[in-house]
Amino acid sequence: MTTEPPGTPPVIALAGVGRTHPGRPPVVALHPSDLTVHHGEYLAVTGPSGSGKSTLLHLLGLLDTPTTGRYELDGIDTGSLRDRDRSTLRGRRIGFVFQSFHLLPHRTAEENVVLAQLYNRTPPRTRRTAALEALRLVGLGHRTDALPGTMSGGERQRVAIARALVNRPSLLLCDEPTGNLDSASAEAVLDRFDALHAQGFTLVVITHDPAVAARAERRVAIRDGVLSEAEAEVRTAEGPAR
Amino acid sequence: MSRRSVLPEPSSRLGLRDLLSEALSGVLQRPGRSVLTMLGTVLGIGAFVAVLGLTATASGQIGEQFSLTRATTVDVTDRPRTDGVAPGANPPSNFPEDTDRRLAAIDGVRAGGVWWPVPGAPVITARPNGPNEGTGLSVLAATPGAVAAMEPTLAAGVTMDAFVQRTAQPVVLLSEAAAGRLGVSRLDAQPAVFLDNVPYTVIGIYSDVRRRPGALLGLVIPASTALERYGNPAPQPDRGAQGLVATRVGAASVVAAQIPLALRPDAPDAFTVVPPPDPHSLQDGVTSDLTGLFLALAGICLLVGAVGIANTTLVAVLERTEEIGLRRSLGARTGHIAAQFLTESTALGTLGGLIGTSLGVVTVVAVAAARDWTAVLQPAATLPAPLIGTVVGLLAGLYPALRAARTDPLKALRSA
Fold first, then answer.
1. Does A64 touch chain B (CB under 8 A)?
2. Which residues of B touch A99 (CB under 8 A)?
3. Per-residue model confidence as pLDDT tens digits over B278-300
4. B312-343 core/surface letters (b: 16 or more CB in 10 A; e: else)
5. d(Cα A65, Cα A18) in Å, to the nearest integer?
6. Contact across the interface for A87 and B9, Cβ inside 8 Å
């Protein structure tokens, strides 16, 4: 399924990455795990709440640093990077989609998307064009001037998706993207993900919802801080829908 | 900077234009709150500008009233030699006989002469052997130049001229106070008053003088007449002969330097010349305790303003943790977050400073207009006033900006 030319490093390469929160006793949030996600893949990470999903998301999103192991993003070893470079990578190569959208309430859809280009040296002249294109891509070409308060949950999440993809990142990192949406809106968002996947975007969706995970082409499961790929499909297929 | 980035792409950056527009939209997002936040700064800086402006305006007025006369007046005090004089007699004054002419020859002098209180307190009567009317009145001897330098306002008659001085005429100029006391109201009958029972013809009555207001309670007789009848002036500096010189505006200090040599080239040390005070020192002296008090109040206002900005910015930081987390996820570095909040608080302070300065200027102009004064605003105090607001905003924003920069993006994004 991967479309990358040979020799291109995988988008995500985790080797023995684990995260332990210090304390008495230390809490292991994620046991040392391996995970490789290639360019263009659509991966779902499933697991109940408290399983370590969020920890994995934060590690993948460079918002947190692993206590053990090695994380390469696009072949760049992120362990040795300083905060400045981690910020650069977040702004350039990762697009976040959050459960609660995190749109700035006083800014229009377009301005919210433009915000994603503020820190990564996008020339001011091209920002608007790129933002409009991203909004069109998520089917909101007609709502560019709307404030978040006047939009439905589904629309807001699509603005957030447009914001995440406007920089054409290597990785779209989605945290419970349908968690705050009704089923119709969720369906629309998942359709967008399918479309983006078809366009070659790399997606990692973290969810507890088997229906969302079922749309991905590949699934891994987290349970009690243990990442497992082999049985993932079986487990999510058999697990009860909560 | 530290070592170069190992990344192929350029590092995150927040351009100045983007920083300013982000900060401005942060300020404008909550206009009502921003205005309230600025209030302390507005009041503090407004009070600061108003107090300084009003002080300058008020002292400018005092200076204008006093200094035109003061700045054109030069006093010359005689230092007569006391050696070689018979006991009981007064030494001759060092002023030469032609003092008036010598003073008038100095460029920049409008009039000048010598005057002194006539020694021995003559008895002043309206008729021979009448009751003494002189209580509280003083008899001055003055050359015509000295009278001219006093610039009397004549209510009737004429002033003293060179003729009465040259010929030592028994004439007298009365102040209005003296004329009233002596019952002299009209001059067409050529009335006389008596000094030690010697008649003096009243040639003029003056209602006001610009210099030597002591003359308003006195009679003035020609210096030559006084010398003839009462002898030399007393040697004490406060009762002795004094030179009075009226100069043109701006000439006083130059004239003052020339006077001793012009009067007595042989003994220039014989005089003490007192030029008018420097106008600058005059204005500085006007700064009162009240000004200090108001400035202290303005300082307190500024402090309150700073605390207000710090408080509001801190609240904004806590309120906007979600936004901070989002911005961090979009590639903002901690420095960018700090810079944004610091710029917001600085913008608030600057805006407050600008508004406060404007209000202060308006206050000064309004007060000056109401009092018919000329508004005086010192550029050195007024122009940098908005910058005080900038500094206040900057200092007030330091701690909140630090808090914002330290916000953990993980926790910030979790809150929803």
1. yes
2. 416
3. 555 545 555 566 677 778 888 88
4. bbbebbeebbbbbbbbbbbbbbbbbbbbbbbb
5. 9
6. no
Of B89, B231, B111, B232, residue with least CA distance to B161: B111
Q: Do B332 and A91 touch (CB under 8 A)?
A: yes
In chain A, the residue whose alpha carbon lies closest to the alpha carbon of B411 is: A63
Closest chain B C-alpha to A117 CA, distance in angstroms: 8
**Closest chain A residue to B409, measured at CA:** A63
SS3 A232: helix
Question: Are residue B258 and residue B400 in the same domain, yes or no?
Answer: no
β partners of residue B206: B154, B175
- Domain with B231 in it: 72-278
Query: Residue A14: pLDDT above 90?
Result: yes
Residue A204 lies in a domain: yes
Domain that holds residue A132: 12-238
Residues A99, B416: C-beta atoms closer than 8 Å: yes
Q: How many domains does chain B have?
A: 2
Q: What CATH number corresponds to the domain at position A25?
A: 3.40.50.300
CB contact A147 to B (< 8 Å)? no
Average pLDDT score over residue span A86-102: 92
Q: Say if residue B98 is in the same domain as residue B214.
A: yes
Which band of pLDDT confidence, cut at 50, 70 and 90, is reported for residue B213? confident
Same domain, B197 and B232: yes
